[in-house]
Amino acid sequence: MVATEESKVEKITEKLEEIHMDDSNAEANNAAEEGAEDNNGGEATAAAKKKKKNKKKKKNGPKTQTEPPTVPVSKIYTTKVYPLGECHDYINENTWRTTSEEKRAEERPKEDDYNDVRRAAEVHRQVRAYARKIIKPGMTMTEIAELIENGTRALVEENGMESGIGFPTGLSINHCAAHYTPNAGDKVVLQYDDVLKVDFGVHVNGRIVDSAFTLNFNPKFDKLVEAAREATYAGIKEAGIDVRLCDIGAAVHEVYDSYEIELDGKTYDIKPIRNLNGHTIEPYKIHGGKSIPIIRDSGDETKLEEGEQLAIETFCSTGRGYVVEDGECSHYARSTDSGFVPLRLARAKSLLATINKSFGTLPFCRRYLDRLGEEKYLMGLRNLVDAGVVTAYPPLVDTKGSYTAQLEHTLLLRPTCKEIVSKGDDY
Ligand SMILES: [Co+2]
User: Fold this and answer.
1) Model confidence over 193-203: pLDDT tens digits?
2) 279 is in an annotated binding site
3) pTM over 0.70
């Protein structure tokens, strides 16, 4: 999900092919042991026999993912210790953090939290590996959303507020940059010439991993997608403890300045979408207190701080570089600071009870209400939005005919290093 300038102000209110998930250390150990065996001239010692037996047993265990993805990551990582993201040392006046014993000690009590975020990230990587391979023109938006959501629910072992989907699966196409997911009855079919932003979230104990990528099928859009990727990585590189938000925006903007794209004989500047922002993430709150600009001259000198979790996301466009709300709304979230609001409609009250129980402050969409068995809830939902108890997040669009792209990662500003938790082999 993305933070808009407006929301910042209105805060009030896998026949199954196998993907090997063995970690490289295990593979290295096996290779080393096999090497040792060869040195014995192939003699089948008691130890080697035992090892082979163990190996076979291990193979029968569920250590690989299926297609489509159905195996919980906890059945793959049986020690329940999930892989670290990509870690980067802090730079400049923060280089001391890398080797600080004191900072290492501060991280120890937070390991369980980090492990929750990493479990969510592993689910994201495994679900998106399948999504990136299988999403093709001709599929409906509903099929795409369901394959991602079914995968997420299974791999994270969805369980009430303990683990599940972090927010609705964004499947925004072309000039729509964000916050579109199909509602019931949606008949939109993905086309060859579409540029699709896939933005989905996974949470474990409220620790949300928010990561997004862009798919294009016609290579004429490659530059646009590349621009979003490079700009986001520039933002990620810039981010760190004590770094001013405006400096991240400037680093991102500078990359976009170097990009243009030729589409059907016409050349377009690739611009950042100036009213879309990255954001901090807090437990069960996709939009924490800070918005991270993707333009220079934002003037925001607020600094990032130790311990913060960030979604660094940038969007670019061949249009105006500015989005407005447009079209049927699908995304909603309970407002986190609405306080007590008296509700007159009984239907609004019962709907709010469902929202509180099923989503808390996590964003949801109409399809999620449908699957819970809620019916004829639009009036009640409208009532909750009007009362300020629930915030509606309609699709955000640039000018018609334009194309937009996005890339997003979730980062942890750990005391000793910057960890890109959602980083994978794909992006
Ligand atoms: Co986001």
Assistant:
1) 999 999 999 99
2) yes
3) yes
